[in-house]
Amino acid sequence: MSVQSTANTARAGATATTTSSVAAVTRAVVQEFLAARVAGDTERLTGLFAREVDWLLAENPAVPWIRPRSTAAECAAQLTELMEHTVPDKARASVDTFLVDGSEAVLMGHLSGVVRATGKSFEGPFALHLTVEGGRITRHHLYENSMSIAEACTP
Q1: What is the mean pLDDT of the chain?
Q2: 52 phi/psi in degrees, rounded to 5
Q3: Choosing a second label site near 122 at 20 to 30 A (CA), which of 2, 25, 130, 153?
Q4: What's the rounded Cα separation, in Å, for the pair 81 and 131?
């Protein structure tokens, strides 16, 4: 084996180790995020988000908890607002897929709930794309069945 190929192999091994440790941090932060959501712990959620977050959730004027957000506190507060407008013991979410590639994580599953004001239910699949940098969530893009949620919020 030549010196060059040994150096390339060493670099590839170091890159794989770095990628692996970045992925491990990403997985741990996302698991902590999920645990904090289940526990309803907005203080813990605030600590998991970066100061500025690339937040994407399709704006929907009929849905009071869906609005633009960008700070850690605003992002964490989404959980509180969701719980104020839905019936907590009727809320369900299941994660069927949890993929991690370096700093990127994608969760896919199904969610459902009941809107408190109307008594109407909503349900559908979701996909959540999170980016973790420096141990904090810097991107939160949620794709869900917004039509079902809007219909449930409309009297």
Answers
A1: 91
A2: -120, 130
A3: 130
A4: 23
The residue among 37, 20, 28 whose CA lies nearest residue 142 is: 37
Residue 120: CB partners within 8 Å, gap ≥ 6? Answer: 114, 151, 152, 153, 154
Q: Tell me the C-alpha to C-alpha distance, in Å, between residue 101 and each of 12, 20, 31, 33, 104.
A: 16, 9, 15, 17, 5
Whether the pLDDT of residue 3 is over 80: the answer is no
The answer to which of 60-69, 92-101, 113-122 has the lowest mean pLDDT is 60-69
Please answer whether residues 45 and 32 qualify as being in contact, where contact means their C-beta atoms are separated by less than 8 angstroms.
Answer: no
Element containing residue 14 per DSSP (H, E): helix 3-39
To 5 degrees, how large is the angle CA 67–CA 73–CA 76? 70
- pTM value is 0.85
Distance, CA of 34 to CA of 61 (rounded, Å): 26
The CA-based angle 96-59-29, given to 5 degrees, is: 40
Chain center to CA of 144: 12
Sign of CA dihedral 121, 123, 127, 133: positive
